[in-house]
Amino acid sequence: MKIVRAAKVLTGRPGEEIADGEVLIDGSKIVSVGPRGSAGEADEILDLPGHTVLPGLIDAHVHLGFDAQVDPLTGRSPESDHHLLLRMAENARKLVSAGVTTVRDLGARGFLDLALRDAVEEGLAVGPHIVAATRPITITGGHCWYMGGEADDEAGIRRVARENLRAGADCLKVMASGGLMTPSAPPSWAPQYDTGQLRVVVEEAAVRGKGVAAHAHAHASIRSCVEAGVTTIEHCTFFTPSGHRYDPKLAELVAASGTYVCPTAHGVLDRMRKVHGDEMLDSWLATISAMREAGVRQIAGTDAGFAVGDIPNATDGYVGGLEVFAMTGYRNAEVIELATVLAADACGVGDVAGSLDPGKRADLIAVAGDPLERLADLRNLALVLVSGRSVGQEGVDTVIPSVG
Q1: Which residues are within 8 A (CB) of 166 and not within 5 positions of it... i.e. 6 or more apart?
Q2: Which of 124, 169, 245, 254 has a CA 20 to 30 Å removed from the CA of 45?
Q3: Confidence (pTM)
Q4: Which CATH superfamily is domain 2-55+355-390 in?
Q5: CA distance 17 to 370
Q6: CA distance 381 to 57
Q7: Which class is domain 57-346?
Q8: In sequence order, what are the residues at sequence separation of 6 or more whose Cβ sits closer than 8 angstroms to the Cβ of residue 315?
Q9: List of residues 6+ apart from 77 with CB closer than 8 A
Q10: Distance separating alpha carbons of residues 340 and 173, to the nearest angstrom
Q11: Could you give the maximum distance between any two Cα atoms of the chain, in Å?
Q12: Helices 195-207 and 219-228: crossing angle, nearest 10°?
């Protein structure tokens, strides 16, 4: 048994904070959460005055093994699967160094994400729990086709979905619209699949109790995602040939459906300015703010692991994405909720993670200071536990870039 005590304990839910609190841990599970002295005695007591304990953070959209060296026209890459897997393991370690204890990897080739997920769970690698989507389902030559998930009709979609699930996927990823990073794919404002085809993905996932994350920029694709019943909409930029064009009515539809939106908010704002310009950046931030006002349930996910315009979105820059939410009007307590409780529910792990509750995994962090007052204090990590295992990486140098 272990007790972790701190000046403040946050459960993850807004308004639930315990001054001078403590968390009792038995192995990989939380036993109790309460004020100092409520847990009784334990073999080990870690007292952290001046610190805040809260649930481990969740990044709901990462690419641990996005390979920037892939030729998007031929699908060939000079980086072998063996080398890529080692880089993925380093990216997982970097995520832990930022206090992230659960990630959803939304696209990997060769089922490498499953190998890394299992290695982390076995204790062979240092990293967060991984919710793995494996190969994104996309049309022939579509966005990220080179990861191996091409399918053009309902039969093909079912085949790829079933192959992914047979391999051990924890969820499915589908490219509902095109993307700018794949020259052969339709542009971001054009759909790749219609509502019926997206519904096939949802049906296949539901048979096995899994969720679906849908990449969607286009207005029509966002609507189709809601109608098909996907779990989360990724990006949700309301993109058109002339840029972002926020649609209040469509946002109301998303909010009413309860579908989660991961706007992939990251802190690499200089990249946005350099590659897309100030107008695009301002429009992106305004869209996140407008969705909040509309009641859309947004979650934290950084889209970390690749570069645009030679500017990388590093996997250990997680807190910068949370600060973007604060810039758009979210209160700090709301930001913590969307980075823990809401993200866990959206990723399908809400019953075991995302909040400090008895019976859940002992995934927690301790930071110097109070993130309810200053989100930047989330960078002051003193403790990181993944299923009760201490995996703090403070002071460990990053040896390679996040992107190959």
Answers
A1: none
A2: 124
A3: 0.96
A4: Urease, subunit C, domain 1 (2.30.40.10)
A5: 11
A6: 12
A7: alpha beta
A8: 62, 64, 91, 92, 94, 95, 98, 302, 304, 305, 402
A9: 67, 69, 70, 71
A10: 21
A11: 63
A12: 40
Instruction: Report pLDDT for 10.
Output: 98
Q: Which residues pair with 100 in a beta bridge?
A: 57
**What tens digit of pLDDT does each residue of 253-298 get?**
999 999 999 999 998 887 777 777 778 889 999 999 999 999 999 9
- 315-370 pLDDT per residue, tens: 899 999 999 999 999 999 999 999 999 999 999 999 999 999 999 999 999 999 99
Judged by DSSP in three states, 107 sits in coil
Place of tokens 């004020």: 35
pLDDT of residue 69: 74
Structure tokens at 313: 């979105």
Residue 134 carries which side chain, given as an amino acid letter?
T
**How many Cα atoms are found within 13 Å in the side-chain-facing hemisphere of 383?**
25
Residue 185: count other Cβ atoms within 10 Å of its Cβ.
23
Residue numbers of the chain with a pLDDT score lower than 50 = none
Q: Give the separation between CA 52 and CA 371, rounded to whole angstroms.
A: 8
Residue holding tokens 């790829």?
Answer: 160
Q: How far apart are CA 144 and CA 275, in angstroms?
A: 20
Helix (DSSP H) and strand (DSSP E) numbers for the chain: 11, 18
* pLDDT score at 309: 66
Phi, psi angles (nearest 5°) of residue 156:
-65, -40
User: In the prediction, which pLDDT does 192 show?
Assistant: 98
pLDDT for 155? 98
193 near 224, Cβ under 8 Å?
yes
